[in-house]
């Protein structure tokens, strides 16, 4: 089974290799992602996040799911010394950096609970896989038609934070300025909640974030710094040598 839908501002593609998997379970997974978008998007004025940001809701009024997301955001803020912060001065509350991975991981768990054993769920380039091995390419940070590495993953998740799609959009909360010390940073972790949030948080920290992420339990890192040097943890599950040397034309 294969399906692609546009949710939360990016394409979400799903491939399931299990014979006879119920399509209703796939419907439920995509319905969950649409629900998350409606409830947690800071760009929708009637969402729970927007209402909280305007002071229309108190912490006691929040859903358990949003409390969980905000707790995760605070954990990463503290762990990065403020580099990762969803409440930047002059900006509204924006927990998207945690919501994306958290919600897609929940979607993957819905599929598993419904009986899926071998699948690949790709949400705008951040991926959850089960029942591999699966091969996942990491885009070259300067050449859209090339890969800088390919990894092999059986069960787990991979996420990349970079400057190539949205420019300098990740802010270092310690300085209030865009994080420019890295070109891209990829994290492999047991869940997409961890991989996506860690990738964004580490990118906000700059080069020091690579070592910080590498020290987290279960995380492996592949990063390209602003000087086009490659930083890779020994356990990063690369499937052979880098496909294209970083900095190559």
UniProtKB/TrEMBL annotation:
One Pfam family hit: ApbE
Molecular function, one GO term: metal ion binding
UniProt catalytic activity: L-threonyl-[protein] + FAD = FMN-L-threonyl-[protein] + AMP + H(+)
EC number annotated for this UniProt entry: 2.7.1.180
Keyword list, A-Z: FAD, Flavoprotein, Magnesium, Metal-binding, Transferase
Superkingdom per UniProt: Bacteria
Signal peptide extent: none
InterPro entries named in the record: ApbE, ApbE-like_sf
Cofactor(s) annotated in UniProt: Mg(2+)
Keyword Nucleotide-binding attached: no
Record's protein name: FAD:protein FMN transferase
UniProt lineage: Bacteria, Bacillati, Actinomycetota, Actinomycetes, Kitasatosporales
């Amino acid at each position: 089974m294969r399906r692609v839908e546009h949710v939360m501002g990016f394409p979400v593609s799903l491939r399931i290799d299990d014979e006879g998997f119920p399509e209703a379970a796939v419907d439920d997974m995509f319905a969950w992602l649409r629900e998350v978008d409606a409830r947690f998007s800071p760009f929708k004025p009637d969402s729970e996040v927007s209402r909280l940001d305007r002071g229309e809701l108190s912490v006691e009024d929040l859903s358990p799911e949003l409390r969980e997301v905000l707790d995760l955001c605070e954990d990463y803020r503290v762990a990065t010394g403020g580099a990762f912060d969803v409440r930047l001065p002059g900006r509204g509350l924006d927990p998207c950096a945690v919501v994306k991975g958290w919600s897609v991981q929940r979607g993957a768990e819905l599929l598993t609970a419904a009986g899926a054993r071998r699948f690949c769920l790709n949400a705008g380039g951040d991926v959850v896989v089960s029942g591999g091995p699966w091969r996942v390419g990491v885009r070259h940070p300067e050449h859209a038609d090339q890969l800088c590495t390919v990894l092999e993953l059986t069960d787990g998740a991979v996420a990349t934070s970079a400057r190539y799609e949205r420019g300098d959009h990740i802010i270092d909360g310690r300085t209030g300025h865009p994080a420019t010390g890295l070109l891209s940073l990829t994290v492999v972790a047991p869940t997409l909640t961890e991989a996506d949030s860690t990738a964004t948080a580490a990118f906000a920290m700059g080069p020091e974030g690579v070592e910080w992420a590498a020290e987290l339990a279960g995380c492996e890192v592949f990063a390209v710094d602003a000087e086009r040097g490659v930083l890779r943890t020994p356990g990063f599950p690369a499937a052979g040598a880098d496909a294209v040397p970083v900095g190559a034309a």
